[in-house]
Amino acid sequence: MSISEEMYLHYHGLIVPKETHSYESLEFAQGFKFEDDDVLAVTYPKSGTIWMQEILPLVLNGGDLTPIHTIPNWERVPWLEEKQLARVVDKLASPRALVSHFPYNLMPPSFCTSKAKVIYVMRNPKDIMVSSYYFHQMAGFLEDPGTFDEFMDKFLEGKVMFGKWTDHMKSWRNSELGDRIMYITYEEMAQDLPAALRRISDFLGCNLTEELIQKVAEHCSFKSMQNNNMSNFSLIPKVYLDHDKSPFLRKGIAGDWKNHFSSEQLTRFTSVISKELEGESFSLPWSL
Ligand code: A3P
């Protein structure tokens, strides 16, 4: 199965969409100078990236709503590897927050020597695949996903942007960043957002009061984000993101895979993923 050379570019073995990435933007990321107080949220696509773009500014600035109501998410907490970073980098408030889909092995040298903290957000790969399937339908800059069954093959073979989920996961789970990295799951955030926010706030040394935790949770809820034009991608022209085909903020739940996978697909998916994770010292936070 091949991927569209017209829509994607290859960078050190990684597949990325040309619309949002260029060779220059990927090189800009390599030369990016991390500062010790930078905070980076890393995700495999469709694991909760824009959720972190809402959460981080609120946690870092004590619940001030101004950034999330006045700056589009992609400029407020930009992607390290995307084209817009060079344009907005000088405008970022300190401490800076960024997101990235890079696997650990593509992190720039300055990240490794800095003390910048990382929050790695994991999501059940079955739900990632479902979310990604709909995203490929609505995003004009991604290949048509074909049928759900065909897309499953592409996903399992890593013929999708940012490659195989298992490779991404392995790279960050084995990164040995000690107390610079915190692992959190989408499911944990979906089940009890205030508890997840307390963990994030403690990790970042922000120590938000309970009142602020509740306020941040309210503004980072699925409903609030759906209603926030600075976070729901409604500012992006339809030719790039067509919310009539599927909204970006689609369902926002854990376990939607149960509405999509046949028992044969479940067996196929589970066997490929388990095989690729065989022998790894970390365990998954969900059963496959
Ligand atoms: P679904 O398609 O399953 O709804 P990313 O930002 O990494 O592309 O991930 C997008 C997924 O995160 C989508 O999943 C989206 O709905 C979900 N998401 C974003 N904000 C959320 C929130 N506040 N609560 C729950 N899910 C959220």
UniProtKB/TrEMBL annotation:
Domain Sulfotransferase: 36-278
Signal peptide per UniProt: none
EC number of this enzyme: 2.8.2.-
Domain of life, source organism: Eukaryota
Location(s), subcellular: Cytoplasm
Keyword terms: Catecholamine metabolism, Cytoplasm, Transferase
Record's keyword annotation contains Oxidoreductase: no
UniProt-listed GO biological process terms: catecholamine metabolic process; xenobiotic metabolic process
SUPFAM superfamilies: P-loop containing nucleoside triphosphate hydrolases
InterPro entries, per database record: P-loop_NTPase (IPR027417), Sulfotransferase_dom (IPR000863)
GO MF annotation: an example: sulfotransferase activity
A Pfam family the protein falls into: Sulfotransfer_1
A cellular component term, taken from the record's GO annotations: cytoplasm
Similarity field: Belongs to the sulfotransferase 1 family.
Name of the molecule in the record: Sulfotransferase
Species of provenance: Pundamilia nyererei
